[in-house]
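Q: Predict the assembly, please.
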Amino acid sequence: MRLLPVITQSTVLKRAAIAWLVSLAAAMSPALAHHSFAMFDFATTTVIKGTVSEFRWTNPHVILTVEAAPKGAAAAAIWSLELTSPGNLTRMGWTRHSFKPGDRIELEFNPLRDGKHGGAFKKATLVDTGQVLTSNLRDAEKPGLK
Amino acid sequence: MRCIHSLALAALVFGALISAPGSHAEQSETDSAPQPKDWADLAKLPDWSGVWTPNISDQDARAVSDPIPWNAAAAAEVARLVAQEKAGKPKGLFVNCLPEAMPSWMLITHNALEFLFSPGRVTILGEADGNRLRRIYTDGRAHPADPDPTFHGHSIGHWEGDTLVVDTVAVLPETYIAVSEAVGIPNNGDLHVIERIHLVDAQTLHDDLEITAPHVLTKPWKTTRILFRQRARKYNIVEGVCLQGSFAEGVGKRGQAIFVPVPQTPWGNPVIRDSR
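A: Predicted assembly structure:
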């Protein structure tokens, strides 16, 4: 008879997975999809180089996920960038194919005020093609735009 | 006496018969079918076709240039919300995907809208956050005596020359008079909004708003919002379903395409998996 359970690596991984799901459930708030931009620090610009892991072209806000190691950081981390809507981005020359997983990019964004790995997208340069993408609606404040 | 009643009744019936849908519909519980003249009269209205994009920089500037006359309690709450935002813990007023409502849709939207003219009505259609719409009755009707409160209220309008004057009441008290997505105060009831919407040049539209909210403002707040006309097709209004971002595309047990809820932060942002 064992008094203590044997903790295998598999058990540890399972527990870690469950803990992650529990933390997700705690953080999960259903029906909250109009992402507020008020949590971003628009006075600060952060620059990172990384690789696109996901590009979600979805209302109300497009999400770009990038794997990148900030300067001086030992390990790469996942960064989540928020943009305006597909409609607004279409008007600025974007399409749902503007980024694809694996694209190497240099990225500028306004970081989350709480220091987590996320921010409001400002500008990205695709390393392989040199194409620059921006998303500032305030740059398009005039009538008759082409 | 009976004769007078009969005459009055005849006059009423005659009045109903000759009433055009664009002019005397308030006397009737039924809307008349539009006649060719009603459609032709639409051509006399100013040209508001195309898609209109907001001047967001001007929205920001007017937060300073057109200060809101909050009462003391509302001003204290606004100061608290501003401090909360600066501390990095903003209150997300609209993260629940309920409509910005009137007047905040007009005040703080970053999204395009369009106007549709039809006999007896102007309809405003917005893009993001659920493709909002406002129905403005221009057929001469009055507000209902006891309208059900709604997010966009009950709107009646009339044309003064080329200016559409819109009167809106019956907005839900819980909806915000918003300065931004993080700072706003519920109107607390008895909200009344008067708008004068007009072209200031061929491609620029102004919405001059006068907002009366006696439970949170000390006097009516007057401000203006500016919209720019776009005709390039890439500006055409597209679908914008607010709750779509709460879901990701997934595959069900039988291989069918399904929506799967996405874990989100209290601010409505997707949870970041930054540790692997």
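Confidence is low (pLDDT under 50) at residues 1-32 of chain A. The first strand of chain A starts at residue 46 and ends at 56.
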